[in-house]
Amino acid sequence: MFLKRKLTYTIVLAVVLGIYIVSSLVTEFHLTEGVASFPKAFAWIAENLIPDEMAMKRFPKILDKLIETALLSVAVTVIAAIFAFFFSLFGSKATGFHGIINRIVRIVAAFFRNVPDVVWAMLLMFSFGQNILTGFFALFFTTFGLLTRAFIETIDEVSASCIEALHASGANFIQTVFQGIIPSTITGIVTWVLYMIETNIRSSTLIGILTATGIGYLFDMYYKRLDFSSASLVVVLIIIMVIVIETISNQIRKVIL
């Protein structure tokens, strides 16, 4: 048994190394050159990516777009969570819906979940153009798919016994949802919503570059104008915002868990 497992690990390692070697040859990537370039890269960052006086003058405008991006992410996540929760009720086996309905819901959720938000943004730009509505729907579709799948699993794992007890007492579907499913799954739901808010704030920056909105648009504009000091201020503020949001989320999780 030990020799068989050792042979398996050796084969897997050899395959991974083989893929790395072939990929390096095809892309002409050299690990040693990449590692050796780090000192020069850090030196360039230290010299160019430091906010100067001109960047600080743009601080109010950058902060305004940063808040806009954060509020958009929160709005998208909350609305997607509402739709995802009610949609997940039809996808959960615990709620007693027919197996065909369960499969259809899971297929729809998988479709929206597996198409990246960047791809959604590129597709929607053909219809809506470069505006905040495009970014909203791009984030909404992906968030809806992810939360639907997460809520289905949460309901299946947490609410099974509670739902059975309510059905046995003669409760209807609405009563089961509001007296059984929501109270028993609220902790998991809030945790997933907080996680998606953090994720969407990061994603909305990239989406903004494509849709010419929010903080992503400012970063793209400053970067293309070679205004690296202002671009660096955007990056610093994004990092601070993500840390603040994550800290708040962790505190909320400690309270509800």
Give a written overview of the molecule.
The chain contains twelve helices and no strands. It has helices at 2-27, 31-36, 38-48, 53-57, 59-91, 99-114, 117-128, 132-158, 160-168, 173-211, 214-224, 228-256. Helix 10 (173-211) runs antiparallel to helix 12. With 257 residues, it is mostly helical. The mean pLDDT is 83.
Under the CATH scheme, the architecture of the largest domain is Orthogonal Bundle
List segments where confidence is low: pLDDT < 50 over at least 5 consecutive residues. Answer: none
Question: What are the secondary-structure elements, in order, as H or E?
Answer: HHHHHHHHHHHH
Q: How many runs of DSSP E, i.e. beta strands?
A: 0
Shape: globular
| Proportion of helical residues | over 70%
Work out the radius of gyration. Answer: 24 Å
Can you summarize the main beta sheet?
A: none
Percent in strands: under 5%
Number of structural units classed as domains? 2
Number of helices: 12
Q: What is the level 1 CATH name of the largest domain?
A: Mainly Alpha
What do we call the CATH topology of the largest domain? MetI-like fold
CATH superfamily of the largest domain: MetI-like
